[in-house]
TrEMBL record:
SMART domains: PP2C_SIG, PP2Cc. It comes from Ureibacillus chungkukjangi. This is protein-serine/threonine phosphatase. PROSITE patterns: PPM_2. The keyword Metal-binding applies.
Length: 248
């Protein structure tokens, strides 16, 4: 699969608290990571940077013979995320300037066209095919909790005043339980991992329109960022875009 990684501070913020990265193991495995440091908390950029660097270390030092089944992959991802959470949490306790810091996390372990996603917070994964778009992840947000329990509609959630209040994040508690999703990437499809700086500004129709343009994958990534900025750019904006065009 082809990929591109983009991140932008946006038009209103002074600091980019998002971190994104794509790592390739000497074996066939790859790891895409997006972390959105929590706005309004101290040192969100420290939390997101730590999450990326710790995940990178665990991944590049991995003995991939351990990942011989979906369950083994899930167990590795769970143990890794829990270890990273503990390190970020302990750092926040030891450093006054980092007290209360946290971050969202999307970690996607890629085995050729099979993907295992570990998810915490309100960063998202979308899957685009020629005729459909699917939001793979479910936001760990107060508003999404209200939607799931029928208190408000999805339409009301879009403009709810507490839309950005998340109820689960990495590093703010001593333990964490991520959600897991499995995804098989078919020919002529795209996977979009993004922070809420993108998902809050673009509709899925706007995203899909960009992905169908006759542009390189790098140009599509930059176009997504540009449109979010053109729509206000109030937050940091980050994307990892993966494309399976069917070419060998």
């Amino acid at each position: 699969m082809k990929f591109t990684v983009e991140s932008d501070v946006g038009r209103k913020r002074m600091v980019n608290e998002d971190r994104v990265a794509f790592f390739e193991h000497p074996d066939r495995f790859k790891l895409a990571i997006l972390a959105d440091g929590m706005g309004g908390h101290n040192a969100g950029d420290v939390a997101s940077e730590m999450a990326i660097e710790e995940m990178k270390s665990y991944f590049l030092n991995l003995d991939v013979t351990q990942l011989d089944s979906t369950e083994a992959k899930r167990q590795w991802m769970l143990e890794t995320i829990q270890s990273v959470n503990e390190k970020v949490y302990n750092h926040s306790l030891l450093h006054e300037s980092c007290k209360g810091m946290g971050t969202t996390l999307i970690a996607m372990l890629i085995d050729e066209y099979d993907c295992l996603i570990g998810h915490i917070g309100d960063s998202r994964v979308y899957y685009f095919t020629a005729d459909s778009v699917t939001l793979i992840t479910k936001d760990h947000s107060y508003v999404n909790f209200l939607v799931e329990y029928g208190e408000i509609s999805e339409e009301e959630a879009e403009n709810h005043p507490q839309k950005n209040f998340i109820v689960k994040s990495l590093g703010t508690e001593s333990t964490i339980e991520p959600d897991f999703y499995e995804l098989q990437v078919e020919d002529a499809s795209n996977v979009l991992i993004c922070s809420d700086g993108l998902s809050n500004k673009l509709t899925t129709e706007e995203m899909a329109a960009i992905l169908t343009l006759p542009l390189s994958i790098e140009e599509k990534g930059k176009k997504l960022i540009q449109l979010a900025n053109d729509s206000g750019g109030e937050d940091n904006i980050s994307v990892i875009l993966l494309s399976n065009d069917g070419e060998v």
